[in-house]
């Protein structure tokens, strides 16, 4: 299953896709398009699933580049493919090299794909609450700018992630946001003694504040839509130790 952003689809020379859990070769807890290298799935199945995604976007499997995501705010400019099993720690990637497929993994966090088609620069970011609050979105925009992009020309698309109705948080979480973002109360909705957090809205706000010209937010809730997406929170609520991760990826033609 490939989902596309209408905003990114309009851009010449850019191909992209937000992939769900369907259409792969894994089974069990990882059924079926699991791409998580440290998910516990069989390595050969993970590689096969990654190759399927690359093929859907017209890129050879060796052109797919992902980082070891750590919920931080580091963005890396990519100049050539690397061994994804030995990838550097980072939560965002950017490049101006055609033929490289930049990918980010998620299972509730926000996958963000970005492009300045005029400059021929693309980016991909993994934005969970820690990364978004810590500045990963600003970091990927800055890295893209260093490669020749202009923030006002960048189009960003936020793919499937956990929806507000599924994202219950406690007082400590709310206090952490309040201390870092004084205006963050608008991203919380009361739910008894707890609250529901709008990760999608927060990511969109941070992208806009970083100067991104256009932002497209796709309204899919990974936690609620079990047949379509993997979800970390859903697995934890059920006390399941194993779960898969889905891939979102972007490339330049050529």
Please give a quick description of this structure.
This protein has 254 residues and is α+β, with helices and mostly antiparallel strands.
Low-confidence runs = none
Distance between the termini: 24 Å
Shape: globular
The number of E-state strands comes to 14
Q: What characterizes the major β-sheet? A: 6 strands, mixed
* Count of discrete alpha- or pi-helical segments spanning 4 or more residues: 7
The CATH architecture designation is 4-Layer Sandwich
CATH top level class name? Alpha Beta
| Radius of gyration, taken over Cα atoms and rounded to an integer in Å | 17 Å
Strand order of the largest sheet: 4-5-8-7-9-13
**Backbone structural class:** alpha+beta
Average of the residue pLDDT scores: 97
Which fold name is given in CATH as the topology?
CNF1/YfiH-like putative cysteine hydrolases
How many individual domains? Answer: 1
H and E order: EHEHEEEEEEHHEEHEEHEHE
Q: CATH H-level name... which superfamily?
A: CNF1/YfiH-like putative cysteine hydrolases
Measured by DSSP, the beta-strand proportion falls in 15-25%
